[in-house]
Design goal:
alpha+beta; 4-stranded antiparallel sheet; 2 helices
Length: 90
């Protein structure tokens, strides 16, 4: 599975929605976890409906959002290529 980088994800989020302008790991709408070599970025979309729209757009552009991640939550989980995210050293 070829995963895109968090940098490409952030650029795509900024293109999709102006609320993500200047998005980075420190942005209030972004969270992250790394489990071994498995890195994930959590995107706070605002509403469940907006989450579905963002996930659809991300999938069209080659990203891997997890549509099964806490479906009633406006936050989506997106697999990205490895980076030293939160918990990378555990």
């Amino acid at each position: 599975m070829n995963l895109k980088s968090k940098t490409k994800l952030f650029a795509e989020l900024e293109r999709i929605d102006s609320r993500f302008e200047g998005v980075s790991l420190g942005h209030k709408l972004i969270g992250n976890e790394t489990y071994g070599r498995d890195s994930r970025v959590y995107v706070h979309c605002g509403t469940v409906e907006r989450r579905k729209e963002i996930e659809f757009s991300l999938r069209l552009n080659g990203f891997k959002p997890n549509k099964y991640y806490d479906r009633k939550n406006p936050t989506t989980e997106v697999k990205v290529s490895y980076f030293r995210g939160h918990h990378w050293d555990e």
